[in-house]
Amino acid sequence: MSDLDTFRADTRAWLEANCPPEMREPVRSDADICWGGRNFQPSSPAQKQWLDRMAERGWTVPDWPTEYGGGGLSAEQTKILRQEMAAIRARNPLNSFGISMLGPALLKYGTKAQKLEHLPPIARGEIRWCQGYSEPNAGSDLAGLQTSAVPDGDDYIVNGQKVWTSYADKADWIFCLVRTSRESKQGGISFLLFDMETAGVSTKPILLISGYSPFCETFFDDVRVPKANRIHDENKGWDVAKYLLGHEREMISGMGLGGRGANPLVAGAIATIGLDADGRLADPLLRASIALFEVRAQAFGAMSERFIDELKAGRAHPAQPSMMKYYGTELNKTRHELVMAAGGSDALEWESERSNGGAVSRGWLRTKGNSIEGGTSEIQLNIIAKRILELPGA
Amino acid sequence: MPLFLNDEQQMLHDTAKDFVAEHAPVSHLRGLRDANDPTGFSRDLWKSFAEMGFTGILIGENAGGLGLGHVEAGVVLEEIGRNLTPSPFLTTAVAAVEALKNTPHADRWFPGILAGDTVAALAVDERAKHGDAVSTRAERAGNGFRLTGAKQFVTHGHVADLLLVAARTAGGDHDSDGVTLFAVPRDAAGLTATPERLADASIAARVTLEGVTVDADAVIGEVDAGREPLDRLLRAGRAGASAEMLGVAAGAADMTLSYLKQRKQFGTLIGSYQALQHRAAHLYSETEVARAAVLKAQQLLDAGSPHADTAVSVAKAQTGLATTLAVQEGVQMHGGIGMTDEYDIGFFMKRARVLAEMFGDTNYHADRLARAAGY
């Protein structure tokens, strides 16, 4: 048996022994998703147990170095762990912007001290992070941001406003882009980390078309941040931001994948519409739309696997995350349009218990933001055209 | 196994890319078409494919081949697609070899395929649209069978040495059981293969079988259980056609991108216009996704995975979508010259249409996936 076969067998046995049965059930609501943090209230003892057991092995971040709370696994081992988790439909033990976005940027640009301070609490789910990027006048043109950081001794004094800060009202710390120079647009940005409990930080949730408030406006009023909390050099924050955006795009692109095993779109359509005598969905046009969607979704599943393999081998084009983000989010919007069509008027209920509080329609509306947040689809197409296809500038 | 080419596969890719581009670029196809060549491909080129070892990629080393897999066959097919090279490679060295592998027929036909002498054709389709029904009858006669029926879209059927014919030995047209696959020499009495030139200048035959008598040893696999070798043939053919289509898409996209970078209107390069940039970027995305789906299918076929069949249908359907988009965008973004025969982009559109139809189009495979998923 090869080393990898042994690793697979050991991993399978460990997961079987340690993943609580409740954590193999599909995620039904937001409460089922574990985000960690200072104010984390586990929705069940099993959720906490699963997080702690995985964190203990470093498997919330399997490919991070062990000294920073990771599992120290190779790319191949990480892939096997993910496959084995998927095989038993294990839930993700910890959802975290610290893992998916800040962590990779810290590993690349952080000092040893910064890594040791921040990465282990991320891996253990002790600190929940939010991202301070967009501003009211800096959306697609992110580098036009105006939130200022003025040096004052060993500190910066930060003033300004961020918007679309995901879960800012629930986060413990923020990673934030600030302007430290007006000499240059992209070359005047720095990357800061600070505690959301610092004096002068306030948040205000934004009510969305879904009726949920996953995003906030975040205000900074003379917020004092130590210079030691700056990642990378002053005015070099754009490099960190771009690197991190690549990881955000990867994460968002994963939304197009759907789950393994039972397909909720198909199952929902069968439940509402039924099958004809030949075993086909009784609405032939919807069936065709779903079938053609599924072709793309499954092909994109292969693309995601290919992208991750190329990324780990250092072979992916640096702008390829833009393609993944574009395709994955557009696919996810299509999926939810089909889910709504399959659900008919059942799917329109907004509050009823039967509809789990309008989960289907609210989820559908939420996906409309996928192709806007993290750089719109049109921005991604610009990036592909210029950086991958090398088409001339306007 | 990571989902990208390993070093050996990359080397084969480089070799095939140079070889096909040098010996059979699009001008080779144009030359054959303009000469109204009755064969439909160059026999000399088929010989040199053999000398390069390409025709033995899927043949085991013990039989004198390279003992490689569908990934490697796909590497060659992509270059065939990129150059629109007329070649019996897909029907003979991929689909037929897969069907004949590990049967007594291998001893008879593989040496000729390895030498670049033998050409095989696939007599599977009976209607204008590819489907699962088999109506051609094979009745027991003496020591063998007598075949009666009609086939169409039999690429190279008029010049092939050997036709693989699916016929019904039991049951009704739509039954899965009761199909038998036969290896029939083209010179068999009662077999007529009428060449028809297709839109892309390739030649496919309409084949009629009027009481064609074959011995019992013409059966590939078992009587009434021909679905098994036929499915092997189709999986290989579909994965191969997907790889070839991917090459057509890549070739069309390359031409189009070059054009966007050199054509000026209103005093500026048209590739600087966002309307065209976004279309080109969207096309790139569809093609990349198709490339992943094709490689996934090839790897699963090589691994003998039970999921290979699904992955092959995903690959064929997605490359159908992506390649159709690539050639349509190609002609549109070239503008008026894209409509001229003198310019090559139209050849890509025609070839894509033929490959999209071969072994089932996107709708066929989407339907197949839906049925397999229980809706």
From TrEMBL, chain A:
<feature type="domain" description="Acyl-CoA oxidase/dehydrogenase middle">
    <location>
        <begin position="130"/>
        <end position="223"/>
    </location>
</feature>
<keyword id="KW-0274">FAD</keyword>
<dbReference type="InterPro" id="IPR037069">
    <property type="entry name" value="AcylCoA_DH/ox_N_sf"/>
</dbReference>
<dbReference type="Pfam" id="PF02771">
    <property type="entry name" value="Acyl-CoA_dh_N"/>
</dbReference>
<protein>
    <submittedName>
        <fullName>Alkylation response protein AidB-like acyl-CoA dehydrogenase</fullName>
    </submittedName>
</protein>
<keyword id="KW-0560">Oxidoreductase</keyword>
<dbReference type="InterPro" id="IPR009100">
    <property type="entry name" value="AcylCoA_DH/oxidase_NM_dom_sf"/>
</dbReference>
<comment type="similarity">
    <text>Belongs to the acyl-CoA dehydrogenase family.</text>
</comment>
<dbReference type="InterPro" id="IPR046373">
    <property type="entry name" value="Acyl-CoA_Oxase/DH_mid-dom_sf"/>
</dbReference>
<feature type="domain" description="Acyl-CoA dehydrogenase/oxidase C-terminal">
    <location>
        <begin position="235"/>
        <end position="389"/>
    </location>
</feature>
<dbReference type="InterPro" id="IPR009075">
    <property type="entry name" value="AcylCo_DH/oxidase_C"/>
</dbReference>
<dbReference type="InterPro" id="IPR013786">
    <property type="entry name" value="AcylCoA_DH/ox_N"/>
</dbReference>
<dbReference type="GO" id="GO:0005886">
    <property type="term" value="C:plasma membrane"/>
</dbReference>
<dbReference type="Pfam" id="PF00441">
    <property type="entry name" value="Acyl-CoA_dh_1"/>
</dbReference>
<feature type="domain" description="Acyl-CoA dehydrogenase/oxidase N-terminal">
    <location>
        <begin position="47"/>
        <end position="126"/>
    </location>
</feature>
<dbReference type="GO" id="GO:0050660">
    <property type="term" value="F:flavin adenine dinucleotide binding"/>
</dbReference>
<keyword id="KW-0285">Flavoprotein</keyword>
<dbReference type="Pfam" id="PF02770">
    <property type="entry name" value="Acyl-CoA_dh_M"/>
</dbReference>
<dbReference type="InterPro" id="IPR052161">
    <property type="entry name" value="Mycobact_Acyl-CoA_DH"/>
</dbReference>
<dbReference type="InterPro" id="IPR036250">
    <property type="entry name" value="AcylCo_DH-like_C"/>
</dbReference>
<dbReference type="InterPro" id="IPR006091">
    <property type="entry name" value="Acyl-CoA_Oxase/DH_mid-dom"/>
</dbReference>
<dbReference type="GO" id="GO:0016627">
    <property type="term" value="F:oxidoreductase activity, acting on the CH-CH group of donors"/>
</dbReference>
UniProtKB/TrEMBL annotation, chain B:
<keyword id="KW-0285">Flavoprotein</keyword>
<dbReference type="InterPro" id="IPR009075">
    <property type="entry name" value="AcylCo_DH/oxidase_C"/>
</dbReference>
<dbReference type="InterPro" id="IPR036250">
    <property type="entry name" value="AcylCo_DH-like_C"/>
</dbReference>
<dbReference type="Pfam" id="PF00441">
    <property type="entry name" value="Acyl-CoA_dh_1"/>
</dbReference>
<dbReference type="InterPro" id="IPR006091">
    <property type="entry name" value="Acyl-CoA_Oxase/DH_mid-dom"/>
</dbReference>
<dbReference type="InterPro" id="IPR013786">
    <property type="entry name" value="AcylCoA_DH/ox_N"/>
</dbReference>
<comment type="similarity">
    <text>Belongs to the acyl-CoA dehydrogenase family.</text>
</comment>
<feature type="domain" description="Acyl-CoA oxidase/dehydrogenase middle">
    <location>
        <begin position="134"/>
        <end position="197"/>
    </location>
</feature>
<dbReference type="Pfam" id="PF02770">
    <property type="entry name" value="Acyl-CoA_dh_M"/>
</dbReference>
<dbReference type="GO" id="GO:0050660">
    <property type="term" value="F:flavin adenine dinucleotide binding"/>
</dbReference>
<feature type="domain" description="Acyl-CoA dehydrogenase/oxidase C-terminal">
    <location>
        <begin position="233"/>
        <end position="373"/>
    </location>
</feature>
<dbReference type="Pfam" id="PF02771">
    <property type="entry name" value="Acyl-CoA_dh_N"/>
</dbReference>
<keyword id="KW-0274">FAD</keyword>
<keyword id="KW-0560">Oxidoreductase</keyword>
<dbReference type="GO" id="GO:0003995">
    <property type="term" value="F:acyl-CoA dehydrogenase activity"/>
</dbReference>
<feature type="domain" description="Acyl-CoA dehydrogenase/oxidase N-terminal">
    <location>
        <begin position="6"/>
        <end position="116"/>
    </location>
</feature>
<dbReference type="InterPro" id="IPR046373">
    <property type="entry name" value="Acyl-CoA_Oxase/DH_mid-dom_sf"/>
</dbReference>
<protein>
    <submittedName>
        <fullName>Alkylation response protein AidB-like acyl-CoA dehydrogenase</fullName>
    </submittedName>
</protein>
<dbReference type="InterPro" id="IPR037069">
    <property type="entry name" value="AcylCoA_DH/ox_N_sf"/>
</dbReference>
<dbReference type="InterPro" id="IPR009100">
    <property type="entry name" value="AcylCoA_DH/oxidase_NM_dom_sf"/>
</dbReference>
